[in-house]
Design brief:
The chain is built from 9 helices and 8 strands. It is α/β, with parallel strands linked by helices and 211 residues long. It starts with a helix and ends in a 6-residue tail after the last helix. It has an 8-stranded parallel β-sheet. The structure holds pyridoxal-5'-phosphate.
């Protein structure tokens, strides 16, 4: 199947219930061009530098692009991220809230942000612990960030459904409309739990070649 076919098949399954964030990290130019030629305009990237080299020129050619940052953000890259992206999905600590608020004030750009929740309470994983979410939300709103959703990456060795269910519950409790969850292997499950944004890389573009 071609990339255009992959996109069409996923979009048909979504039937307008959620948006496909095509995760373009590591993918070669010809695959990106194929997705663009198919008309796809919503992409996710997990590194600021890499996203900048892949998308800054293409942004000029396609003003209707929307870019989501879906990877961890260091505070010293906050300004560059705010300049490039439309949505930051990975707000997860007060220091980053502060850096983003400052960068938005400096650039005059006011991005939508999601808070990343570490639903599995994993030590090595980014995201705020579910119990610390209310405090971080408070901090972010006070700082003027436009928090419109939550994002999670379930533990690799666990049933994702319970994590999607938890994220949905937290979003409902805090009145947040956007839910970024589900990847190539589990997006159908995420959709059933109310995902509004599916972050899909491999099932759109094929395997990533890190060599
Ligand atoms: C790479 C990545 C994805 C896409 O993963 P696939 O399994 O290729 O669909 C989704 N979310 C995040 C945060 C990622 O870093």
């Amino acid at each position: 199947m071609s990339i255009a076919d992959n996109i069409a098949e996923i979009e048909a399954a979504l039937d307008g219930r959620a948006k496909l964030v095509a995760v373009s990290k590591v993918q070669p130019d010809e695959r990106i061009e194929e997705a663009l030629a198919a008309g796809h305009r919503l992409y996710g990237e997990n590194r600021v530098q890499e996203a900048h080299s892949r998308w800054s020129d293409r942004r000029a050619a396609h003003p209707d692009l929307t870019l989501h940052l879906i990877g961890p953000l260091q505070t010293n890259k906050a300004k560059q991220a705010v300049e490039l992206f439309d949505v930051i999905e990975t707000v997860d600590r007060p220091k980053l809230v502060k850096a983003l608020a400052k960068a938005m004030a400096e650039t005059g750009r006011n991005l939508d942000c999601y808070i990343q929740v570490n639903t599995g309470d994993e030590d090595q994983k980014a995201g705020v612990a579910p119990t610390d979410l209310p405090a971080l939300l408070d901090t972010a709103i006070t700082a003027g960030l436009n928090i419109t959703g939550l994002m999670c990456i379930p533990p690799i060795d666990e049933e994702p459904a319970m994590h999607f269910g938890l994220l949905k519950k937290l979003a409902t409790r805090h009145n947040l409309p956007n839910l970024s969850m589900g990847m190539s292997g589990d997006w159908q499950t995420a959709l059933n739990f109310g995902a509004t944004h599916l972050r899909i890389g491999t099932a759109v573009f094929g395997a990533r070649d890190y060599a």
